[in-house]
Amino acid sequence: MNQTAVNKFSKDERFEGYLLVRNAEKRLNKNNEPYLDITLADNTGDINAKVWNCDDEPPASGTVLKVRGSVTEYNKRLQFKIERYRMAESQDEVDLSALVAAAPRASDEMFNEILAVIEGMQNPVVKAITGEMVRRAGDKLHYYPAAQSMHHAERSGLLHHLTDMIRVAQAILPCYPFLDGDLLLAGIVLHDLGKLTEMLSDTLGNVSEYSKEGLLLGHLVTGVAEVRDAAKALGYPPDEEYALLLEHMIISHHGLPEYGSPRKPQFPEAEVLSQLDDLDAKLNEMQAALKRTRPGEFSDRVFALDRRVYHPRYLDEEDAFSDLEELNTGLYEGESGLDPDSAYQGLL
Predict the structure, then answer these.
(1) How far apart are CA 166 and CA 181, in angstroms?
(2) What is the mean pLDDT of the chain?
(3) Of 75, 183, 288, 296, which sits with the fewest C-beta atoms within 10 Å of its C-beta?
(4) How crowded is residue 260: how many other Cβ atoms within 10 Å of its Cβ?
């Protein structure tokens, strides 16, 4: 599928090709005229698109459209004006791996990495609760993203987020021998599992919307409730120390009340979890910004970071940028764990 990648779109450029629908809805302009507002994506990024003067029903999230139109600019952000579109058909032979953003490692590999961490735990309570929570997560953990549109918003993005945090934790634990390694690693595995019920995702990792439970409670509250229920099912009393510590790590991992935490971290492992979560999320956002920004230039404002990101002219920039280009064009698609043929069958 030879087409311009979304992260390479430029103002006034014409485009005709296939893009994935992340979400879509019908809206009315100031003159009460209907139009479609659609977020379109490939495996390099997404762009807001408009179909003006259109009373069609919006396409479903996770479907593929063939679109024709031009790249415009609105409020200093690129936007795509769709002139014509249709649903992709089986004879189009769409390469789905070029449209679906996926984690750089296969989901089975990352999942087994988490199982190995649990198997290596010495604390029986922490090990039992963490194992039970992962068992309950089931197949969802293999394909769920970590967010709808922010950090690790990709197929298997939640596993990507958790395993990267685990690797950083394992690297720093020897520097702080007073930390309880089992407790920290368990907190990492558990802290975002509430997102499996907070968001509604298809098997491509595309989140259509948040669940009622997610909107009313959020993944911190549901995560605590799920750990408490798992501990009870395993026969632990309500005042079990380590269950309570894990619950606190979940409810405090956003760090500050303004970021959604009802409590600030109140013991060392909870503090480290909060810091690692923030670090991994920000670095993932920055990496994504670098992929769509040329060396020596600033990105557009990154909403999650509330700033623009500068792409330094690194000493080995030519090779590094070439690697990113290869990643964007799907040369590493075999590492994503995504089977384009089987995934495509249920798409249209």
Answers:
(1) 10
(2) 88
(3) 75
(4) 14
